[in-house]
Structure formats: C-alpha cells, structure tokens
Amino acid sequence: MGRVYRAQDTLLRRQVAIKYLSPNANQLAETNGDSALHAPGAGASLALQRQLLHEARAMAGLRHESLCRVLEIIQDAREPFIVMEWIDGLDLRSAWAPLDQSARLALLLKITDAVAVLHAAGVTHRDLKPGNILVDARGLPVIVDFGLATHGIAGLAGGGTPGYAAPEQFQAGAMVGPTADVFALGVLLYELLTNQSPFSGRTAEEIVEATNSKHPALPETIAPDAPSGLQRICLAALERDPKRRYPSAKELADDLRRFIRGEIVAARPSILAEHFHQIIDEQIIRTRQWERHALITAEEARHLQRTLMALQRPDSPWIIDSRRLTTSQVGLYLGGWIALAAIAVGFARSWDSLSPLLKLAVPASFTLTLVLLGIWLQARDHRRVSLAYLITACIALPVTAAIFFKQSHWLSNGGEGMGTAELFARVRETAPNVWAASLNPEQGIFNLQLFFAALLWLAACIAGRAFTRSGAFTFIGSLAAYLTWALLWLVCGGLSPARDAQDFASVSAHMLMLTGIAFAAGCLLCNAEQAQQASIGMHRVRRSDAWPVLTLGVVGSLVSLTAIAIFKPTWYLLPQLISDSSPSITRIALAFMLNGCGLLVASAILTRRLAPARESLAVFLRWILPSHFMAPLLLLHSHDVWELHDLWLSLGALGALALCFISVWKQWKPFLVNGLVYLAIVYFRAFDEPIFSNDLGRAILALGALTIGIAAMILAWKLPAWVATARLQRWLQQAKSTAAQSVSASRRDTTY
Fold this sequence. Notes:
By secondary structure, this protein is mainly alpha-helical. It has 26 helices and eleven strands. The strands form four sheets. It has a four-stranded antiparallel beta sheet, with helices on one face. It has a three-stranded antiparallel beta sheet with strand order 5-7-8. The chain has a two-stranded antiparallel sheet with strand order 6-9. Strand 7 and strand 8 form a beta hairpin.
C-alpha cells in the first residue's frame, strides 16, 4: 500500500507518522469503486490524491482509543502524504508472544470493540492482521492502515493479506462487508489459541486456496487446553460462507463477553453442527431399523426418535444458560422469589396496615416495571436476565390482579348470594379462626375473581411464550391453564368436602423389613448388571430385575420410615437422643432428621456407580431429602419447643438459603426448588413473630422483603458484568506491564 515513516512535527513538537502511497493508485481506485479516476486524461498525481483522500476520510470520523487518528492530509506536495498519530509500540504478534491466553483475550476484545466502532460507522477495514495492529507501551492495541477500507455496507472484492483476508476478498465481483473483518478477527483468535495460522501454504496462492476450500483444524487438536467456548466462537468467525459468520464485530464481541462471564456462547459453527446432525440422522435411521427387527418396541422407537429430533433443534444459548445453576442465576431466582413472596404473602399478612394507595400501586408498579425491564433487556440481548424478569412478572400478575379485584370489589356481586360453593367459604367452615373474614366483601376474594386472575395469568403466559420463545412459559402456562379450568369448575359450584387420611404406622413398620432387603438386593443386582456389561458388552445384556427391585426398596423404605417417624418415633430413637419427658413433637422432628441422614447415605450409595436406575432414584431422593431437615425445624418453631421460637425460625431461613446455594455447588435443582419453597414458608411465619405483630412491623417486613428481592435481582444481573470487567482489567494490566517491558527492550536494541 505504501511507505510509512516516523517524523517530527517541528511546529507542535511531537512525533507523527507520515504515509506515502504506492504509485499504482489507479488499481487501488478500482478496489474502492472510484470510476472517476479512469476518465481520459486522469493522471497518477490525481489518482494518488484521491486515494489519500479516501483513506483519510475513512479514518477521520472515527473516535476510539484503539483506532489510529488522522492529523492532516498534505495534497499539494510533490508526493502527497497523510500525517497520522505515531504509535510507539510492537506489532500484535510480537506484543502478545509472552502473554498467557487470558491477557491475549483481553487485547483481542479491545481490538474487536474498536472494529465494532468501525462497522457502526459503516467502515470495513478489510486488512486486519498483526502487522496492522500495534500495541503501545501502555498495553493498548491500536489499529492502523486503512488503505483498503470501504464505506457503506459492502464494497467490491479487492484482495487483502492471504491468511487473514476472507475468501470473498479474492473472488471477482463478490461483495465484501463487515463479515470480512469478522473473518480476520477469527484468524487472530485462532492464533491466540494455538500460536498457529488456520491456513497454511508455501505460496500466497496456496494459502488463498486453503482459505477457499479447507476447514481449519480444530484448535483443541493443536492446543488441548483451548476452551470449548472460544473454539466455537473462533470457528463461527471463520465460516467460509459470510452469511454464517457474525454479522459484525459487535456480535463477536458480545459472544466473547458471554464467554468471560461464564455463560453459554451463541456460536454454532457448521464444522461442528454438521457433524453432529449427521450422527443424529444416522441414529434416527438406526432406530427405525431396530424397530423393524423387533429389537425395541414401537413405543421405545418413538421415544428415541423424539429425543433425537429434539437434539437437532437445540435451544438458544441464553435458554441453555438460564438452566445452569450459577450464582448469578440462583440470585435471579432468589431475588424474584423473595419479591413474589413480599407481594403474595407480605401484602396479605399486612393488609390492614397498608394504605389503599400502597395496596394497588406497589404490586402493579412492581409487575409493570419487571415487564418493561424484561422487554428492554431482551432488546439489548440480555436474554437470560430478561427471561428471569419476565417470568417473575408473569407469576406476579395473577397475585396483582387478585389484589386489585379484592380492593376494587370487581366481580364480587357485592357479596350477595354467597354459598358453600365458594372456595374460602368451605375453608372457613373448617378453619374459622383463620378465614373468619374470607367472605366479607370488604376483605374477601371470590371464585369469579380468582378465575379472572388466573385467566389473565394464562394470557400473560401465552404472550411471554410468543415473545421469548422460551419453554419456561409453556410450563407455567400449563399450570395457569389447569388452575383456570379448576376455578371454572368452582365458579359453577362444584366444590366437595375434604377427606381425612388413615394411620398405617404398624403396617409401615412391618413393610420396612422387606423394603430394606429390596434396597440392598437392588444395589447388588445393579452391580452385577454393570459387571456383565463390562464383560460381554452393553448390547448383549438382557433386562434384569435391578430397576423394579431397587425402586421398591427406595420408595417403600421412604414411605415406611416417614409413617414411623410420624406415628411411632420412639421405635428407633435411642434414650440418649431423647428423654421420655420431651414433647412428642420433638421426637417426631428428631426422627425425621434421622430419616434424612439415612436417605443421604442411601443417595450416596446409589451414586457410587453410574447406572440409569441408580441415578434416577438418587434424583428422586434429592427431591425428598431437604424436607427431612427443613420440616422438623418448622415443627419445632410451630410448637415453640424449649421456648426457642426465634432460633428455629432463624435456622429455617438459613437452611433454606443454604439449600439454594448448595444447588450451585452440586448442580442439584431439587435442592434449589426446596430452598425456595421453604424460604417462602419461613417468610410467611415471620409475620407471627412478636417483633412484627404490629401494623408497622408487618409493613416493614413486607416492603423490606420486596426491596431485598429487587436488589438481589439487580445484583445478580450486574455482578457478572462487574466481575468480568475486573477480570479484564487484571488481564489488561498484565498485558500493559509485559508490553511496556517489550517496548523498552526493543528501544534499547534498535539503532536509529
């Protein structure tokens, strides 16, 4: 493209860079589509001036610390030139040679952000490579040399540097746009991971041919420690088809930040996806063959085909990421749940202490704010956080609607004609002290009001599903549909009285002996089945009795132990643990905790070996385990055992929070669900504490929980970005320190 010199600006006393273009300006003008240069009589001097002006204009309007600034253009000299900012540093390859992968990634993200500024301004650089990226003594990368840059969405192909230029840059008549820069950034990321170029050859022609026809080797085959997320980003940027790459550098930078935050990246490179889909297609064909040869039943074949076909339609990365139990995700769930508890429980328990304005304004504004924030975050591609906000708003909507109906007396018919068909009328007959005012038109809520609140919930779920395309709204919408249908039945007067359960303690004790033997036998059968699989192969092993026997042992033991703990806790409690003078509720609580310890041991035994039967039953026990420790604490709190009322409630709250965050450590979703449920129960009971028994205390507890919930959701949203920013700053500091040392060493070794 030309020659670049370091010069001294004698007027302003500063160092600058001056660039002279090569004399083949007419060819360069063709690259940039300037047909005016080919008019008869157009001379080389005019062509050089036009080309200089083109490059200067491409750089002049850009403002970013990693983009070289144009200071002046001199056209009236014997040989025109551009005056640019002097960057005292090393080329990118030399600068990041001594750096580790994290520091290199920080530099690359800075470069990608600068290219995103180019693309936002309608400029495509078209010649990104280590020689055109300088890292100064501050550790800041700066992009230089805009001689091939084009304005607008795309320009005609016009060459580039083999090995870094995209395939379309060497195809006659092809349009070259921002995706060409994305390709070059993908090459830089590949070199970051492997210290090798993705395309090699002895000549420039061979390199271009490799770029056009060959897939690069997977980075993990060269550098086994290459992170899979970065590998997918790299391969997606290196797609031969420009339509399959990131549309611009901004999307590439967004995916790099997802990786740094520990989230699922959006990249789905074809080199991996095509191989995956090919394997799935082959498995679907094999499934049909297995069914035809009667190796599996038709039902089993359909189940396998549905599973395989579902794998071919993977969810978006943000949906997959929202299912992972990270501290941020649990924080979103926890904050939303606390806020919902404040709306549903806190306002109900402190109803009389709240003003009419607060009764309507706080729930309505909370729900509306979550909806608007969710839509705003969705538009800015924070879809994981947006999903949590919108789901919280969706669940809060029926509660908000019920509060509105209760306050406005809509659909209550003035309280006239009320009979035993009303839900809370039936509850009032069985628990008059709790629901004495349930049918009071001033305070009660009626079947028709509940029905329309549920109907609004269902409509919100349908809208949320259409807007986010998330299956989470399908699950919640199904619950809303069931509730709406049940309330329709109530509206029509179809309520029946409840039935009482029977005591089977003695039968449970008798059955416990058999179920204990079945549990041990099931484990032994599973071990034998695994040994047989290892010796003759999985496909030769016949179905054994391990699954039904082990299931009988686990479920039967659980039912038997639960019944004994409730009705005869002294049967297996040692005198050293409990005295005869202790309250009966204490015996039940300790019996449940002992059961929980036994189930914990059983779960550990089940997971010692990998087998489908064992894993399924271990998951089942994880749903049951938390209740054997949390329910006893609530029982002790209810009966004020040993006059430690506050202690039991505090232990219950700490236990619920511990379950939530243990779920992150062990990746156990049952613990998270149990923790959220018991946290709501503890919060409900907190209103009965003496400190919150007055109107002011209940209002503080309700509004305080709402504030904590919202703060937790915001913190869960922002904390990963703060951590990622701090991590980037640390990596950049390392890069700056190393770059400064390298530049200083280069100065000492250079003779001017």
